[in-house]
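== Item description ==
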Amino acid sequence: MKKIKIKNQMRNLLCAAIMLFVSVSGYAKQENVEIQGSVGQLKAVIQVPELKAEQKVPMVIICHGFGGHKDAGLLKMISDDLEVKGIASIRFDFNGHGESEGDFQNMTVLNEIEDAKKVYEYVKDLSYVGDIALCGHSQGGVVAVMTAGQLGAEKVKALALLAPAAVLRDDALKGQLMGKYYDAGNIPEYIEIFGGRKVGREYIRIAQELPIYETAREYQGATIILHGKADRVVPYTYATRFNEVIRYSHVKYYDKVDHIFMGCEKTISEEVTRFFEKEL
């Protein structure tokens, strides 16, 4: 009888712990989803704040950079900070990156834009989603701004660019990529970069012709651009150029801050969150 009583007590404690966990963590939902992208399934994570019946909340689509992934520290931090402010987010791996399908060698900026549009179509059909915004880091910033330029401010309410890598076009024209050099007029089948990854000829060919600023100019929504002045991957002058061509944008520079905002992640996340809290 004593053993049965102890088991019952343990079961009650376990149930209480589960109920406490649900009551504490139930204010938000994190869901792993799969979305059909440009060349295969995209793995994504949606974070949603507490919702009341039939309530709609803003949604921010977060785009990682070249060779990156959806769970990078800064991107996850932005998702968490947005959630606290009642804003949903979705982070996803582009084709050929992270857990998503596709071959990295076949990745291009154009098929990443198609990936972003597929994610947009997915979230706009969710019953709780209201206004939609885009946020992108590095190459993800190029994808975000070109997607916003193509879709327009009616569909993309606001835009955050973090060290947007418009330099990728100039680098492709010069024949350089991640410290590797090649003949820009006779592009090889692939360029091998860090980690044994291969960047295909099509990526470079497309990059040479990308109308980055021309497309960015088409976007007429609120935009924030954040860039470190110690960025050696993408000089901060590219942020200045975006600020010049995007009508409703403002730019903020950070001294002694590099391309990935190392040591400044919380500041950047809070800046992005304040911007979206104001604009969405």
